[in-house]
């Protein structure tokens, strides 16, 4: 059961990041540009590649595919690269726009990614007793989508509330 919960957490991490970046895509493009890792002619492709990677990782952890430690390894490498780029850009800042402006998960990006990496490191060593069928994968997907939409609605409500105070 613990492994099932860890898999749901990982699916939520990557899927909520994907949704937040799609919703704030223009802001995300500026965030990627600020990393200064590619020249401007190739820059338009990089945000799309990151979005594809996040959607692909959430799908990989969602589906009942057993490929050993490889999916965790891919997730760890992806998070390490993003963490190193964030350190290079902002140092050890307390906020980023990784999940969009004023998002709950945009606080403490380095520490957050380290926690996500630890979850991915622990996950393969937790016993895998549950049978993860396609129906359960679909149910988990629906749950993750609903939770993500709830978080996004809370974020939008907070932004509107802050805008009304100004």
From TrEMBL:
Gene source species: Paenibacillus tundrae
Superkingdom of origin: Bacteria
Membrane topology: Multi-pass membrane protein
Sequence intervals crossing the membrane: 6-24, 45-63, 69-87, 114-132, 138-157
InterPro entries in the record: Methylamine_util_MauE
Protein name in UniProt: Methylamine utilisation protein MauE domain-containing protein
Keywords: Membrane, Transmembrane, Transmembrane helix
Compartment list: Membrane
Annotated Pfam families: MauE
UniProt keyword Membrane, yes or no: yes
Principal localisation: membrane
Domain Methylamine utilisation protein MauE: 4-123
